[in-house]
Design goal:
Elements lengths: L15 H15 L5 H4 L10 H11 L4 H10 L4 H13 L3 H10 L11 H19 L7 H12 L14 E5 L5 E2 L3 E5 L1 H8 L14 H9 L2
Helix pairs in contact: 1-7, 3-5, 3-6, 3-7, 7-8, 8-9
């Protein structure tokens, strides 16, 4: 059964925050009763545990443009270093504290200097980075996933997605999303979105002559 989405029009940027809040709340609920072993599970983000990815999401939800710029300058324009620094700030002493800190920012509308839809992407993609290794499944509203897929297919901001799918035709089997021309890559909207953002694990859920091309490109980025 598909999870009901909030009453918002995902085509308008001003209506994206309710979608972000709904996804954060769902993730917080899914992680409420994890064991210490589960919190230490490697996520789909290389080198980060489930707990560390959640701390990263908390960090992003508390960064204003001014704080983001101050961190960039402090880290001498090493963006990866700033991400690691902000993650450490929000990790907390225990997994319970990490989870509690995330719960506090569920309704936040604070963000770094990024489009709001990029924050939706951060929320859903990193939620899957957490959920998939834990074997947790969520039936996302298809309108939310479609809006996100449409964003990634035309953007290389934060995540190199547009370049990764150049010359390929992506077709969702569970919704209206379709883009590009060339070798076919088909699957669910979620699998296509995660593949666009470089998550190779989701290629196993895709079909078509273009999947091998997409896999090869992921190895190079």
């Amino acid at each position: 059964m598909t999870a009901p989405g909030p009453k918002a029009d995902p085509r308008r940027a001003s209506d994206l925050w309710p979608l972000i809040h709904a996804e954060r709340a769902a993730l917080a609920s899914d992680l409420a009763n994890l064991t210490d072993e589960q919190w230490a599970t490697p996520s789909l983000c290389t080198g980060l545990t489930v707990r560390e990815v959640l701390a990263h999401l908390t960090s992003a939800a508390g960064l204003t443009p001014v704080r983001w710029l101050a961190g960039v300058i402090r880290c001498r324009f090493d963006f990866d270093r700033q991400v690691a620094m902000r993650l450490a700030e929000q990790l907390g002493a225990t997994a319970a504290e990490t989870h509690d800190r995330f719960r506090r920012v569920v309704m936040s509308t604070t963000k770094p200097p990024l489009p709001t839809v990029a924050m939706l992407g951060e929320t859903i993609v990193h939620a899957e980075d957490i959920r998939r290794p834990l074997g947790i499944r969520r039936d996302y509203p298809i309108t939310t996933l479609t809006r996100l897929a449409e964003y990634y297919q035309g953007s290389d901001l934060v995540v190199v997605a547009r370049k990764r799918i150049g010359g390929l035709r992506l077709v969702a089997g569970d919704g209206p999303f379709t883009t590009g021309s060339g070798a076919l890559v088909s699957g669910t909207t979620l699998a296509l979105t995660m593949a666009m953002t470089g998550r190779t694990a989701y290629c196993d859920e895709l079909g078509g002559d273009g999947v091998a091309i997409l896999r090869d490109r992921m190895k190079m980025t």
